[in-house]
Amino acid sequence: MLAPARSRRDTRVLVVTVATLAALLPVLVLAIAAGSSQLGLGDVVRTLIGAGTPSQELIVLELRLPRVLCGALVGAALGLAGALTQTFARNPLATPDILGVTSGAALGAVAAIVLAGGSYSVGAGALTLGLPAAAAIGALGTAAVVYGLSWRSGVDSYRLILVGIGATAALTGVTSFLIARAQLTEASTAAQWLVGSLSGVSWASVWPVLVAVAVLTPIALTQSSTLSVSLLGDDVSTGLGVAVQRHRLVIVACAVLLTAAAVSAAGPIEFVAFVSPQIVRRLAGTARPPLLASAVVGALVVVGADTLSRTVLPGEVPVGIVTAVIGAPYLIWLLTRRKDREMLT
Questions:
Q1: pLDDT tens-digit series, residues 129-182
Q2: Under 8 Å between Cβ of 172 and 101
Q3: Which of 220, 232, 233, 210 shows the shortest CA–CA distance to 291?
Q4: How far is CA 264 from CA 124, 154, 206, in A?
Q5: 211 to 25, 32, 86, 193, 337: CA distances (angstroms)
Q6: Which pTM was predicted?
Q7: H-helix or E-strand spanning residue 182
Q8: Residue boundaries of the structural domains of the chain
Q9: Cβ neighbours, 10 Å, residue 145
Q10: CB 55, CB 192: distance < 8 Å
């Protein structure tokens, strides 16, 4: 009985993963074609293979392709990070946004922007490693504090979420203080970046998040089977030979670094890490969000939201606002469902 059920579940996960991957490529091409300069899908494809005109190459390769790729990579990083933290804590609310990791990364990046002149490549004092490094330092420090404060002979998901909410509030206050004390130019740059936007993204913003996703995704996927075992609890996992603490360290490190890379590239784009894994979990019908499919859906969510903001909504609404409008009602709906409400206690 169990073997056929598991086989059907694995097949369904595979189908969902392949379907989302198949949907990603046309969505990326459509996103590149969308905009004020009218380009057909054929024009985009010809330009990507090197057969476009000089004006098309400028629009596609220098203006739109970095933005679309960055959006896809940021969404994939956040979707994967959300799947890891939700499974690790065995709670759908345990996302980098709510656990304070996103706020920690944002604080580190804002400190770099405000204290070093508002540029992408930070060049002052201890912040010479750049914006991605500053975001990673903020995220890792926050994760260590939240994890440490939540530890009581183990990590309870309810306590972890409460500590994370408190850390988020405190870090947001510090970030606001930095902006209030900054010069006008730096404050304006930081405030615009904090909304979560892909506007003005260049290739310099793409490479750090590309490296992070390329390196950390395979590492996270190696922990997939162990994540399934961890759902049974620490005692059972230990009895089955799982090195629980080492496994947790790998999962937390991957989720934190993925979040830091995403935040450093596009700012704190809210709710993607929360919504994407839950969409995939319901499509796949699994006890935990499949990792690869969560990353792909995260990419679809961010690219789709950014395309919507550029083509349908009046003006160019930052993508972080669009994802928040989508994600907040979903969070409310999740909290009102009895089954998921019982998961939180």
A1: 577 788 888 888 998 898 888 877 666 667 888 888 999 999 999 999 988 888
A2: no
A3: 220
A4: 17, 31, 10
A5: 20, 22, 24, 21, 38
A6: 0.87
A7: none
A8: 88-343
A9: 17
A10: no
How many residues in the chain? 345
Q: Nearest CA to 107 among 258, 298, 268?
A: 268
**Residue with token string 């004020």:** 36
User: How would you class 321 by CB atoms within 10 Å of its CB: exposed for 0-12, middle for 13-18, buried for 19 or more?
Assistant: middle
Q: Show the 3-state SS of 1-59.
A: CHHHHHHHHHHHHHHHHHHHHHHHHHHHHHHHHCCCCCCCHHHHHHHHCCCCCHHHHHH
**CB neighbourhood size of 71 (10 A):** 28
Residue keyed to tokens 């089954």: 339
Q: What is the pLDDT of residues 68-95, one digit of tens each?
A: 999 999 999 999 999 999 888 888 888 8
CA–CA dist 199, 322 (Å, integer): 14
Nearest to 47 by CA among 211, 19, 37: 37
- Long-range (24+ apart) CB contacts under 8 A made by 147-155 are 147/252, 154/234, 155/89, 155/248
User: 155: helix, coil or strand?
Assistant: strand
Task: Name every residue whose Cβ is closer than 8 Å to that of residue 243 and which is 6 or more positions away in sequence.
Answer: none
Joined together, the tokens standing for residue 30 give: 């459509």
Residues 6+ apart with CB under 8 A from 212: 77, 132, 257, 258, 260, 261
Q: Could you give the angle at which helices 291-311 and 2-33 cross, rounded to 10 degrees?
A: 30
Residues sharing a CB contact under 8 Å with residue 285, sequence separation 6 or more, in sequence order: 9, 12
Q: How far apart are CA 72 and CA 225, in angstroms?
A: 26
What separation in angstroms does the CA of 292 have from each of 9, 80, 82, 219, 276? 15, 7, 12, 12, 11
Is domain 88-343 annotated with CATH 1.10.3470.10?
yes
CB 293 within 8 A of CB 16: yes
